[in-house]
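F.,

This is the one I mentioned.
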């Protein structure tokens, strides 16, 4: 949390310790409505991940549907994070009800700390498997290859980072004609080395019609092109 919020939380916890403030019913309501919702979502995510087809009737975006078709392995054990979080909230609440205020508040802090770190280590990488793992794997394959890598139809810096390529404004040593947009030159100009492109399936059709571009792969909502010099 930002410092002012952290200060107010610590100030309130200290007032509880000194018994100059009290734990009110709305604190309990907020604790279990917000904390309970977070716990339920964390517990449910693995089951939804194992049955992504449940979401298809509610999704109209072809790219999102293709993302959810990614092969991401869920064991179901990940749900323990949500149950663990809820259990610590209950333990902390019981402590506070018995007027063990600092141990109770400390349990809430510990619950948040452990849960956030667990989510970052266990759940976030799996979510990334749906959103961009196919594209990132493609970018990484281009590392060390003397080539250009560009995205079509969407904004991203991932291709520069994971493929370890210079941004277009740093590619001053290319034979690109002065004043010609870099992407246009890659698509239609006299390039000096292979160029790879990544597009979402929702924008890929117009690029498939370009005779200079060859589709080399399609995966999880992304279409990968190559153009030879």
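My design for it:
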């Amino acid at each position: 949390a930002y410092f002012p919020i952290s200060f107010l939380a610590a100030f309130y916890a200290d007032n509880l310790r000194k018994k100059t403030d009290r734990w009110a019913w709305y604190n309990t309501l907020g604790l279990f409505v917000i904390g309970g919702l977070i716990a339920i979502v964390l517990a449910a995510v693995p089951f939804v991940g194992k049955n992504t087809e449940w979401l298809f009737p509610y999704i109209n975006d072809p790219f999102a549907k293709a993302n959810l078709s990614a092969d991401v392995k869920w064991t179901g054990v990940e749900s323990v994070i949500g149950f663990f979080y809820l259990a610590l909230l209950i333990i902390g609440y019981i402590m506070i009800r018995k007027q063990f205020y600092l141990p109770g508040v400390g349990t809430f802090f510990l619950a948040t700390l452990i849960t956030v770190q667990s989510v970052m280590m266990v759940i976030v990488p799996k979510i990334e498997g749906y959103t961009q793992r196919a594209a990132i794997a493609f970018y990484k394959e281009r590392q060390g290859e003397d080539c250009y890598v560009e995205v079509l139809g969407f904004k991203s810096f991932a291709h520069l980072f994971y493929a370890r390529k210079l941004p277009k404004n740093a590619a001053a040593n290319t034979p690109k004609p002065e004043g010609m947009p870099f992407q246009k030159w890659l698509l239609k100009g006299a390039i000096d080395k292979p160029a790879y492109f990544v597009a979402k399936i929702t924008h890929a059709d117009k690029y498939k019609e370009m005779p200079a571009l060859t589709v080399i792969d399609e995966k999880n909502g992304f279409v990968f092109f190559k153009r030879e010099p």
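The longest strand covers residues 195-200.

Talk soon.
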